[in-house]
Amino acid sequence: MLSLIPEQNLGLFIAYNKFDPKFHERLTTQFLDRFYPVAEAEVPQPLANHQNRVRLFTGTYRDFEYPEHTIAKISSLFNHVSVNAKDDGTLEVHFPEGFFATIPPQDNLVRLLEVEPLVFYRYNDDDFVVFEQSDRGNITHMYHPLDLGPAGFEKLPWYETTYFHIPLAIFFLIAFISAIWVGIPNIIRHRSQSARQSKSMVRWAWLVAGLVSLLYLLFLIGMGLALLLNDPIELIYGVPSIMVALLWIPIVAAVISIFLPIFAILAWQKQYWSWWGRLHYSIVTVAILGFIPFLNYWNLLGFRF
After folding, report:
1. 3-state secondary structure of 305
2. Which of 101, 114, 120, 204 is the most exposed place for a label (fewest CB within 10 A)?
3. Cβ distance 294 to 287 under 8 Å?
4. Is the distance from CB of 172 to CB of 287 less than 8 angstroms?
């Protein structure tokens, strides 16, 4: 840890071989209090129009340091930081449980007050937090002084937040289950009065949809269990063989799913099933095809580790 006071031509370098994030802070504080004492600072006055600006900073933020290009990216889903506006013009920053690997842990709830443009006073420890603004006036980043050093966070667009991805994953799950629940019996008990060719096409349509849905469902269950048994952040250091095997499933399913749009178009052209049946099949098709970029976003399509 290096601390510099250029005005005093002073530098303090601390090196130690023990995991004690507070040690350098205690030593630096005691050193400065002993040789460079200062009067106790007062709480800064808020910016004149801070109450009108506070909602500009709200949203979901993500730590800069996350594995963007590997399967371990899934760990970032549980480390999003929420910034909310309060009625009194302050901000509340909510860090997820376990975000700080410090002993003792830092506060998971931080209260901020804007005292200068983009500069916030942190009530918890008399420190300051800085936000970054783009040329268009949008807040893009947040910078916190933490025990382990300064930390930067990027503000996420709505489509990268948990509020979007978790409901989207639930939609996929429901669509897959419905395809298996409705589609497979439809194959077995199909009693259409149409021609044999059409009847065969109907069976193939639901067979493909049901098979792909079953593969994706098995993948989600298997990957979910694997993540429960392994800390997602540890995937940075290696991926268990069971997870490597599971990664073959989306590849196979994605190849098979290329037939679904064809079946969906034929279903509407040739009036397969009822109107609701065709709509259901179309929704399943959209879910299956949409699941491919979803997997790609989380680096679960292919072998990225």
Report:
1. coil
2. 101
3. no
4. yes
Contact 5, 36 (CB under 8 A): yes
Closest CA to 22 of 95, 108, 143, 103: 103
Structure tokens that stand for 244 in this block:
């490597």
CA atoms within 13 Å, Cβ hemisphere of 158: 2
* CA-based R_g, the chain, Å: 27
C-alpha span between 90 and 46 (Å, rounded): 9
- Average pLDDT of the residues in 127-147: 90
What are the backbone dihedrals phi and psi of residue 115, each rounded to the nearest 5 degrees, phi first?
A: -115, -20
The tokens for 28 are: 């630096």
Question: Which candidate, 90, 83, 219, places its Cα nearest to that of 142?
Answer: 83
The pLDDT of residue 91 is 95
**285 contacts 183 by C-beta, under 8 angstroms:** no
**What tokens does 186 get?**
């439809």
Which has the higher per-residue pLDDT, 246 or 26? 246
Alpha carbons 175 and 281: distance in angstroms, whole number = 9
Which band of pLDDT confidence, cut at 50, 70 and 90, is reported for residue 192? very low
